[in-house]
């Protein structure tokens, strides 16, 4: 017989898998109505996952990682911002070249 901890962790893993599947389907969907429905389902799955996570954490079934160092967060943020800006510049240049 499964223990409560195992059941909660199993449901959490299933919720994470569903969220990933919804996200992939959304990215590949060209029908706006279906895309919107999938986004709603993903959002609901994310809310359920977070509620389960909170229960698991309260019961000691899940221990989150310690908070990140503020300097590390800022460094990653700056790196991602630079990468996004670089991508936007490349996309703009490519679009201009195609015209």
UniProtKB/TrEMBL annotation:
Coiled-coil portions: 31-58
Region of interest (Disordered), residue spans: 80-99
Record keywords: Capsid protein, Coiled coil, Virion
Keyword presence, Coiled coil: yes
Domain of life: Bacteria
Record's protein name: Spore coat protein
Organism the protein comes from: Tissierella carlieri
């Amino acid at each position: 017989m499964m223990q409560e901890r195992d059941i909660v962790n199993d449901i959490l893993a299933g919720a994470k898998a569903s969220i990933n599947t919804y996200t992939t389907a959304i990215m590949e969907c060209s029908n706006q109505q279906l895309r919107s429905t999938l986004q709603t389902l993903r959002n609901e799955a994310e809310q359920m996952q977070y509620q389960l996570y909170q229960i698991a954490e309260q019961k000691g079934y899940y221990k989150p990682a310690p908070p990140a160092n503020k300097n590390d967060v800022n460094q990653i943020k700056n790196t991602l911002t630079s990468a996004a800006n670089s991508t936007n510049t490349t996309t703009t240049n490519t679009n201009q070249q195609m015209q």
